[in-house]
Amino acid sequence: MGTNNPPMQHKTGVWKTRLNAEMIARYTSSGEWSGITLAQAARQRLHDMPDRAAVIDGGETHTFKQIFDEATLLAATLRDLGMVRGDVISFQLPNWHETMVINLAASLTGLVVNPIVPIYRDTEVGFILKNSNTRVLFIPETFRGYDYVAMIERLRAELPDLQDVIIVRGKRHGYNSYSSCLAKQKERDASDANGASLSRDVSSGEALEADPNDVKLLLYTSGTTGNPKGVLHSHNTLRAEIEAVQKFWKLSSADVILMPSPVTHITGYLYAMEMAFAVGITVVFMDHWNAVTAIGLIAEHGVTLNVGATPFLVELVTELENQVIALPTLRLFACGGAPVSPEAVRRANNVLPNCLVFRLYGSSEAPSVTLGVASGDSPQLGATTDGCISNHEVRIVDAVSGKLLPHGEEGEIVTRGPEVMLGYSRWQDTLDAFDDDGFFRTGDLGFISHDHYITISGRKKDLIIRGGENIGAKEIEDVLAGHPAVAEVAVVAMPHVRMGETPAAFIVLRSGMELTFAEMVGFLEKARLAKQKFPERLFVVDQMPRTASGKVLKHVLRARCKEDGVHVHEKS
To answer: 168, 138 in Cβ contact below 8 A?
Structure first.
């Protein structure tokens, strides 16, 4: 299937997509694209379980009916503001229940939703709002001491498409507030009790909703270099992901998920905003991470599932060890988004008696290429691999030539499937990201073992080419992560006069621990790692620089290799 110049089936807003008639026919006939939108799923929950808790937010419970009712009021408000199918609305909000309302309101009216990570500031937010042609933006007045309204006022002159800014959980003169928008719409409905009501039209499905193949989500990647890319997903690609997860993890409405990952990131967006309505599960929100608080929430609400980045897992397990307690209701902990050492997974499985802890692999573009350990397979595969391939066709190709490699060999991971994005907001980026057979070039290196399990060995850009030999950073990181003094490790390429490049290690130490360069070398010798893979410089740092999604900014670490004033142990 050639995709570099595919026939266009849809052009939503200002974007071209890869979508064409052949793709629609293939994934629809296979059942992988169900055609079910979020709005339709929400109506089903309204019918099946209106009084069940959809989300628990700061101690307050919001039922599926309450979320749906608020969403219809907000959807009517958006239509009153002139929003039409295909327009973009953005929100830069923490994990608050209002995000679920906004997302559902967008689906009820055929709008495209653009979540923006709350830690982004003027540079990132200005770029995203302008690039997306956002018409309505939802922000907090303030959150964690930051004034979001002041930021938007600084940016407003550069954003001609931005029509309205609505403040959530706050008020500011000259701005609409979320609460006042709902109140005004409710009053309007009451006064029109015997006549037409816009929110009742929305609620009943009479409003113009989206085609399931329309773009639904515009999510900007937290790139490690340059401006972020806008990832385009349809209702069908997102639903395909959710249905695959539900089947693989055997989820039901009896499950409760703790969500500390930002809903403005693909993990939080999918497994909170979409999963709640698709499966009928209850979501427990955290608007900032704290391991002690997380333990309390898991125990109080009988949480059965958690999906989060590596720091969540490591800090939760450390706190459980300190308190000498277990969390018996927790049955699944999926960990990804950043490298997860085998040792961290094994340690977690020892501390959580009824829980399967595993690594999984995906991205904003291809949300869940793997989903952990398949039923009947060894739980150890959750630690030693990055999970079982699910809902994807995966190939391993030569990172330079793109040539297909034999099973078991390391190369670049490319994938194709019903949940892979429709493309990027910039068409040239889309063309660059896919091969002629429609496989997405992930940029990740890895290999397939145990028939259908992927193990990630690094990034194409993370390859260390030492004297012409390729060295994967992750292999070194996994060994060093097993040292008792190491809390976190990242290995990067460092310029070398004779060899071109050589490894350098950045390490965050556990509290009260120390590690010298000589001790690191001794540990690697005992691990029988090849000498050429030994880092030739050790940086001990307080914390790693990260993207909003938790990925270590390795280009920042590479730049720091030459800086003075860093606590460094150099090889003699």
So the answer is: yes
